[in-house]
Amino acid sequence: MTRLGIVFTPAHDPARLITAARAAEKAGLHEFWLWEDCFSHGGLTTAATVLASTERIQVGLGLMPAPLRNVALCAMEVASLHRLFPGRFLAGAGHGVQHWMGQVGARVASPMTLLDEYSTALQALLRGEEVTVDGRYVSLDAVQLQWPAPDEPFFLGGTGPKTLRYAASHSDGTLFAAAMSDDELAASCAEVSAARRSADHRVIAPRLVAVGAGADDRIRDEVARWGKSDASGLAVTGGAAEVADEVARLGHLGITTVVAHPTDDEPDLEGLIEVLGQTAAALR
What we know:
Mean pLDDT: 97
């Protein structure tokens, strides 16, 4: 069964976070995701808040920009959340948006080299290994976590065939970008399927969703914000039945979790969550 989640996007005030997360859990959604966009919500802060405010729902964080955090500090934070909330935290990392990385003085000449060094060291630390590395960007000298989290998943994400193949072969799950067309999703799924390191590799794909009055207008405005001219194959509108059909269809492409991505101007986030709960029930 394809899982269904929702993302609390940076367009929404973090003061609404706890209410939305509890509503998502009550509605029966499988996952609650957070995007760490510069310069908006702090990803680990909001993830910890959601985990502490709910009981069952899995909480995803995508994507922590590798250039922004020392890898040892990131491992400490991620491992702590895994141990505090076993089986519920889905941590993911990526290149970061290069323009934003430049704004904060963290842009690197080779994002792929950094991601390789970073994810390799981070996952080894989470497994409890002592890590010594002297790389181009990552340097550690006999670093070992006191409280590792060896059995928890780690995700990578991004765009482009090279990044997707790396994510599939070096992590437990791949997170796609939002506002991808059917053709782009199919091509990305093919890259992941060919390179994944295990058969149970998870593939997470956001999908723009709007329901209720004015849904088509909101989607049209949203895809324009993403630089797209046409919403066809990028979004779903309607009600629970239409969303369920879309989730099932995307599942056939190889996507294991569809993350409903509200529009920036969604007027009733809790109402959308209620509809998505009906969708999740229909999918079971």
